[in-house]
């Protein structure tokens, strides 16, 4: 009698164990989140140099609900996309700023009128500090860069008739982790530590993989989103006006060329796929890209052979893992291309899935109600 009781217990125990194991495998059914996770884990700072190019990018639909300037003022902006909108707007503002500052060189008051007009250009330090300021002033922006096309960046410090351009010029600042710095005894990152360098400072030959204008650079999809660009028409680019009222009550309207207008197609800001920032910040990153314009070529003494041309791009980035994902099934508010759609574990018959903001790229940013 007693033995039988034990046997029955044994059988029950076995059944329970099998049940748990089977259920466990069912729970871990691999989904699209796991697929992306596998892609992300495959790339490390050590192996990214030898990875095939396609492995350094995530699929286009791994970021859903990208900001669209034509919908601002029509549709609300939800908290799960405010940081991306800020990224978009900051890039847009840089495009206006650098377009204006480069083209207005002929009308700004000269420090020394007897010097040549090259004096009116921003100094190179100005570019570096500007990219650092973008990152320092915006906690949600982790890198800011300006990439010029070959020989389109003019230096105010090169004197003489020709060769006033830099072959390549690309100041870029990104946020670094300083938690391991000996001066921070508490081992916490201050998030106030930046690395800034000129990515164009390379040898004139033999460094093709460091030339950000070439295919060999591999992670430069941002470059091809607007460049190379050489315009040969005076009316080839959208114009904007600045109205200035001076202290002596005279008014002046200054017209300059800039990025595309919001109602044009494409709009002023483009996003590319998330990419692994190999050999730089070594993180998965999402860039917002806008072009800035200049009158090119300069210093020829012949104004009529200058054309408004996109001479460079401003690229602002944030980390991929800070961008909220929506794991709920497709439906209203989640129509788009969305790789993570329908990976939530809500009971579909009795509950409705609702995304929660602030979770970033992490499972569980939703509630079933
Ligand atoms: C202005 O430029 C002239 C000619 O290069 C030079 O002699 C003069 O010292 C400069 N003045 C200032 C204030 O830099
Ligand atoms: C970089 O590539 C461009 C072509 O896009 C070429 O014109 C330029 O000379 C190269 N610069 C260097 C420094 O290799
Ligand atoms: C008013 O000030 C601007 C800028 O300083 C100057 O260019 C312009 O000649 C002045 N106009 C008059 C009438 O004084
Ligand atoms: C400049 O514009 C202001 C504001 O529009 C106007 O009040 C002022 O009279 C204008 N000045 C001139 C000289 O037209
Ligand atoms: C920016 O970088 C810091 C340090 O690596 C990281 O902790 C933070 O999540 C990043 N923020 C964004 C918005 O990408
Ligand atoms: C952001 O929130 C809105 C409103 O709740 C929702 O419709 C949308 O799908 C969410 N997007 C993401 C990426 O979570
Ligand atoms: C980088 C660059 O544009 N270099 C030019 C400098 O000027 C000489 C002629 O004086 C050209 O041969 C170089 O290509």
Automatic annotation (TrEMBL):
Signal peptide start-end: 1-23
Entry membrane topology: Multi-pass membrane protein
Domain GPR158/179 extracellular span(s) in chain numbering: 271-369
A family per Pfam: GPR158_179_EC
Glycoprotein listed as a keyword: yes
Highest rank taxon of the organism: Eukaryota
GO cellular component, one term: plasma membrane
Subcellular location: Cell membrane
Gene Ontology molecular function, alphabetical: G protein-coupled receptor activity
Keyword list, A-Z: Cell membrane, G-protein coupled receptor, Glycoprotein, Membrane, Receptor, Signal, Transducer
Family: Belongs to the G-protein coupled receptor 3 family.
PANTHER family on file: G-PROTEIN COUPLED RECEPTOR 158-RELATED, MIP05539P
Name under which the protein is recorded: GPR158/179 extracellular domain-containing protein
Organism: Penaeus vannamei
């Amino acid at each position: 009698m007693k033995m039988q009781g034990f046997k029955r217990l044994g059988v029950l125990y076995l059944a329970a164990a099998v049940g748990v194991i089977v259920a466990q495998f069912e729970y871990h059914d691999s989904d699209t989140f796991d697929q992306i996770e596998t892609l992300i884990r495959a790339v490390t700072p050590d192996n990214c140099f030898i990875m095939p190019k396609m492995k350094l990018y995530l699929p286009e639909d791994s970021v859903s609900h990208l900001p669209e300037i034509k919908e601002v003022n029509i549709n609300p902006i939800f908290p799960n996309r405010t940081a991306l909108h800020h990224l978009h707007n900051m890039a847009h503002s840089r495009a206006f700023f650098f377009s204006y500052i480069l083209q207005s060189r002929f009308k700004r008051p000269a420090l020394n009128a007897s010097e040549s007009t090259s004096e009116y250009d921003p100094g190179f330090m100005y570019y570096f500090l500007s990219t650092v300021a973008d990152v320092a002033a915006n906690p949600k922006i982790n890198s800011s860069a300006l990439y010029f096309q070959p020989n389109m960046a003019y230096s105010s410090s090169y004197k003489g008739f020709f060769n006033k351009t830099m072959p390549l010029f690309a100041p870029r600042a990104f946020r670094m982790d300083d938690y391991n710095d000996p001066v921070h005894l508490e081992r916490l990152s201050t998030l106030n530590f930046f690395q800034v360098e000129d990515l164009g400072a390379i040898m004139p030959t033999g460094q093709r993989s460091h030339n950000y204008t070439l295919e060999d650079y591999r992670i430069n999809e941002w470059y091809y989103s607007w460049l190379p660009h050489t315009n040969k028409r005076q009316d080839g680019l959208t114009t904007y006006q600045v109205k200035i009222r001076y202290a002596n009550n005279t008014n002046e309207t200054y017209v300059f060329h800039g990025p595309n207008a919001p109602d044009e197609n494409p709009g002023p800001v483009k996003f590319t796929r998330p990419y692994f920032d190999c050999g730089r910040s070594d993180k998965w990153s999402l860039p917002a890209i806008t072009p800035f314009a200049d009158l090119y070529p300069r210093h020829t003494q012949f104004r009529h052979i200058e054309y408004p041309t996109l001479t460079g791009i401003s690229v602002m980035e944030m980390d991929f893992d800070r961008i909220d994902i929506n794991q709920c099934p497709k439906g209203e508010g989640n129509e788009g291309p969305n790789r993570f759609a329908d990976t939530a574990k809500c009971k579909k018959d009795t509950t409705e899935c609702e995304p929660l903001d602030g979770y970033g790229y992490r499972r569980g940013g939703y509630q079933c109600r």
